[in-house]
Amino acid sequence: MRIAYSTGEPAGIGPDIAVLLAQQTWPCELVVLGDKQVLQDRAQQLGLAVSLVAYDAQREPQQWPQGTLVVAQHDTAVAVTAGQLHPANSGYVVELLEHAGRGCLAQEFAAVMTGPVHKGIINDAGISFSGHTEFFAELSNTEQVVMMLATPGLRVALVTTHLPLIRVAETIQRPLVERVLRIVHDDLQRKFGCAEPEILVCGLNPHAGEQGHLGREEIEHITPALNALQQEGIKVSGPWPADTVFQPHYIENADAVVAMYHDQGLPVLKYRGFGNAVNITLGLPFIRTSVDHGTALDKAGSGDISIGSAQYALQTAIDMALQQQQN
Ligand SMILES: NC(=O)c1ccc[n+]([C@@H]2O[C@H](COP(=O)([O-])OP(=O)(O)OC[C@H]3O[C@@H](n4cnc5c(N)ncnc54)[C@H](O)[C@@H]3O)[C@@H](O)[C@H]2O)c1
Ligand SMILES: N[C@H](C(=O)O)[C@H](O)COP(=O)(O)O
Questions:
Q1: Does the residue 278 lie in any domain?
Q2: Which of 293, 299, 305, 309 to mutate to test the pocket of ligand 1 (most atoms within 8 A of CB)?
Q3: Which end of the chain, N or C, is less packed with Cβ atoms under 10 Å?
Q4: Which atom of ligand 2 is nearest to the CA of 119?
Q5: pLDDT category, 73, cuts 50, 70, 90?
Q6: What is the CATH number of the domain that holds 19?
Q7: Binning pLDDT at 50, 70 and 90, where does residue 326 land?
Q8: Are residues 175 and 254 in the same domain?
Q9: How far is the CA of 134 from the centre of ligand 2 (A)?
Q10: pLDDT score at 296
């Protein structure tokens, strides 16, 4: 099995993660999409030995010994200094994602695990980019995808992703809520082996709108979406006040919590599991997992990073690919 790892922003910790992941063996061929010069420099900075092997798509996938990096070469536009962003390298970052996404669509890769990118510098370079989730949806012509982060004991999926807060309320419409919940339900069944997923759905407003006194999105959009799905036998409940639903008492029997927006759900997930969590894009025609953190520019090249999330993201990609082979 061959899994792509896109190293993301070259000045961030994505290359460090590649070097550190190579210090252990994995039950797959991990193909590192990036620039070998950057990887070599970062390995040297970290004081770790790596042996670079050029990726060959025609070669049978194989498991390589510890310390080996199989690199699909992409050249950065300008030399990279750890911790220092350069907009000229944004095209390179996007090129890695295109290779990864197209490779998955063509089944060259069984899955992609993405390293962190810096959304700001990509946009500064004049490339419109709001996140991997949206990028891969567009690349694969998928109308609806869902961002879900998972850590042991908690999965949080989002109705809206990288959307300015001012636009969230108008975006919470019944058809969207229904589409997202269907994807979460179906993917929990197909990809995570939950026979009858129990899904808790947050309201949008404080106290889930307090019977309409604090907002009407629950009454007009979320509840009708839940009713429609419940009539089909799908186990969704809510809208729950978001400050209540994350209590252990509620989440311990749930398979996922669906939050209405990014910072309603992800702070809870990251508080519980930062460093041991994975970001998974549901609804795509291929498997995509990611680390739960950003570029950590302040730590690039320092050796003072955790690769717990990267290990979890890679293992999740492998597990999902195996599950898909069995289906
Ligand atoms: N998967 C992704 O591509 C992804 C995810 C989140 C944020 N981002 C992007 O990353 C950029 C920086 O975002 P930010 O500063 O809010 O978040 P960040 O995760 O990069 O950093 C937040 C803090 O956590 C630390 N940190 C992060 N990962 C770490 C690790 N593996 N080990 C040790 N410490 C770690 C950093 O040093 C920093 O102190 C933004 O452009 C954001 O959009 C990308
Ligand atoms: N929301 C994600 C997180 O907090 O981890 C992060 O921004 C990455 O999103 P994409 O996977 O869409 O790039």
A1: no
A2: 293
A3: C
A4: 13
A5: very high
A6: 3.40.718.10
A7: confident
A8: yes
A9: 10
A10: 98
- List residues forming the annotated binding site for substrate: 132-133, 270, 279, 288
Is there a domain that residue 209 lies in? yes
Predicted confidence at residue 327, as pLDDT, reads 75
Are 25 and 157 in the same domain?
Answer: no
Closest ligand relative to 265 C-alpha: 2
Residues 36 and 121 both lie in one domain: yes
Q: Does the ipTM surpass 0.95?
A: yes
| Residue 318 domain boundaries | 2-142+284-326
- Token representation of residue 21: 């992941």
- Is the confidence at residue 71, as pLDDT, over 80? yes
Given the CA of residue 117, which atom of ligand 2 is nearest to it?
13
What is the number of residues in the chain?
327
Full-model pTM? 0.96
264 shares its domain with 315: no
Q: How far is CA 301 from CA 18, 38, 48, 50, in A?
A: 12, 11, 11, 15
Are residue 153 and residue 126 in the same domain, yes or no? no
pLDDT bin (cut points 50, 70, 90) of residue 325 is confident
Distance (angstroms) between ligand 2 centre and the Cα of 131 equals 6
Q: Is 173 found in the same domain as 133?
A: no
Look at the block and give the residue holding tokens 């994505």: 14
Q: For residues 129 and 122, is the Cβ–Cβ distance under 8 A?
A: yes
The total number of structural domains that make up the chain: 2
Task: Decide: residue 327, CB within 10 A, 0-12 exposed, 13-18 middle, 19+ buried.
Answer: exposed
Q: Does residue 279 sit within a domain?
A: no
